[in-house]
Amino acid sequence: MTTLDNIPRAGNGHEKDVAAATASPIDQEPYQRLTWTDPETGATGYLVIHTLTCGLATGGLRMRPGCTMHEVEDLARGMATKTATFGLPVGGAKGGIDFDPKDERAFGVLVRYCLAMRPWLDSHWVTAEDLGVTQQLIDEVFAEVDLGQSFHAAIQRSANPEATLERVHAGLSALTADGLLLGDIIGGYGVAQACLAVVNARGWDERRTTAAIQGVGTMGGGTAWYLHEAGVPVVALADAIGTLYSPTGLDVPALLDLRNTYGEIDRSRVPDDVAQLPRDAVLSMEADILVPAAISYAIRADNVDTISARVVVEAANNGVLPEAEAVLTAREILVIPDFVANAGAAVWAWWLLLGEVGLDPYESFDRLRLEMYARVNQMMAEWNTIGAPPRTTGLGIAAANLKSLAGVHELTIP
Hints:
- The two termini are 34 Å apart.
- By secondary structure, the protein is α/β, with parallel strands linked by helices.
- Strands 1, 2, 3, 4, 5, 6 and 7 form a 7-stranded mixed sheet that branches. A 7-stranded mixed sheet has the order 11-10-9-8-12-13-14, with helices on both faces.
- The chain has helices at 15-21, 69-85, 106-116, 118-123, 135-144, 152-155, 161-172, 182-202, 218-229, 252-256, 322-330, 338-341, 344-353, 361-386, 390-405, and strands at residues 2-3, 32-37, 44-49, 57-58, 61-64, 91-98, 125-126, 211-214, 234-238, 243-245, 275-277, 289-292, 311-313, 334-336.
- The model is unreliable at 1-23 (pLDDT under 50).
- The protein contains 15 helices and 14 strands.
- It folds into 2 domains: 2-157, Leucine Dehydrogenase, chain A, domain 1 (Rossmann fold), CATH 3.40.50; 182-393, 3-Layer(aba) Sandwich (Rossmann fold).
């Protein structure tokens, strides 16, 4: 494993926004960058610890072909912003592996990566699922390397690690009334609540507010499910194969039931009245809300002019590039940033770890809904009164929380 201490900061284009709000740890160089090469497959892996708070940093581990250090660094910075925005006493990090998760050798690559990163996973880095890596898979990998569960670095700080591990397992295994794993859908639920907060702030009727969603994995699928449940017509859903479209709204539960393990919908079973369009058609759909929930950098300078939605809610990390966001803002198309909209899974995991929520899924839903509405309402209010873009307001919230956390050096985990 090689430590890369002198790589120039990649940046994500929003540094001026951060500086305008305050000079904060979010705007600093990452605490640590690491790179790793798998001796068996040649796959390259990365870890960026952006900030450590109370000696801990949190952020998922992704696996996809083409993953880069630049991408992982952007994501780690986003995690630091996310934890600060929700007032969590923990820093931000991210891991990434440039490898195809569908390859039969992927599990072995994950195991060897985690063995190489073990010093961080053992003491500092609390990780979880991300693109190409499910929570169930990463927990299988942690069991393989004798670390128990992916929240290990936090759990081992508890006064009673065995009891905390049991509580975490119980929380991750909790089922909703629909029979869904809470840990699988809480992130998408949070995105849906961010969308509904916008609908509420704008005074729109849910039944007449349309949504288009790029991605049908845990994040995109969960978002679609809970928007559909709230009465919002989801007119378009896109997976890696293409876009499914119905102007009156799709039968979201039925389509999600047709997904395979890679989040792709079986086209042979899609109803005849559902149009099958190219994959990127979802971005240009005439819908009130567009949710990029699949890949980073989905909306860029070369395609931003095709966006016709009235609001973009970032469910994917870094779903909208800065230059594209500037164009959208100039057109008065609001972008609710990822570090607010998709924070649900991360903040819920820490509420679970800290004993702030129990095993009742609806207790977690209620808290997340209230927290999401509070932040989105503040963003909408500042846009309406002083014209501040949502990202600027969100960064201000993060900066204020960081100031309040400045004196916190110990983390108590029950």
